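FAQ: What does a ligand-bound record look like?

Like this one, built around zinc ion:
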Amino acid sequence: MRAALIDLHSHSDKRQRGAKVVYNVIIPPEGCMALEKGSFEDWISVGIHPWFINDTNTKAQLAKLKEVAGSANVKLIGECGLDRLRGPSLELQQLVLEEQINIAENARKPLLIHCVRCFNELILIKRRLNPSVPLIVHGFNNNEDILKQLLLHGFYLSFGAALLNNRSNAFKLLNTVPDDRFFLETDDKDIPVKKIYKVAAEIKNIPVYTLKDIIFANCMSLVEGV
Ligand SMILES: [Zn+2]
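The answer part, i.e. the structure of the complex:
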């Protein structure tokens, strides 16, 4: 495939000219969905978002994920993770995250991680399970200390619309992240990823086409079938 702008994480299935979008599909609390039905011929990520863990139906949600994880168009498992501010108990969130890490490991696919105020717990889980597949913390906009810890423990990072605010942590810290450890995304923002590439290229003081090549190479090394 020719190098393209990669939008690693989007909740919109809108096409973007010149960009390859990884559309995120959330397994609903009922656990049922029709991934087979053909509307998802593009790249997708699939996972159980911590906000939508159903404490009485977790098994069905995980079974569904297991069923679809091996599909060729599923490039990433997630978003999944831990959220201290929303969702069921952290205990259950951790269990479901660990199961999703196991599923990703079996399918040999990277994980896209949602993490709100649970970075210590996340790092402990990674250290304990020690998966061979990469873990990418998405929507990174945290402080320098957390960034250092995540890099030290081998995490990758994905930066989104926070880069558009020059007072954000994301804006201040992007330049300190090694080139081979980051991605860009639009998440739930209705903007083209091109806009985020433009700002990121300005921050890094490189042309957009160089940034495109860097991130495309990162994608090639992490994601099967690029
Ligand atoms: Zn998201």
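Follow-up question: can I read anything off the structure? Yes, for example: The radius of gyration is 17 Å.
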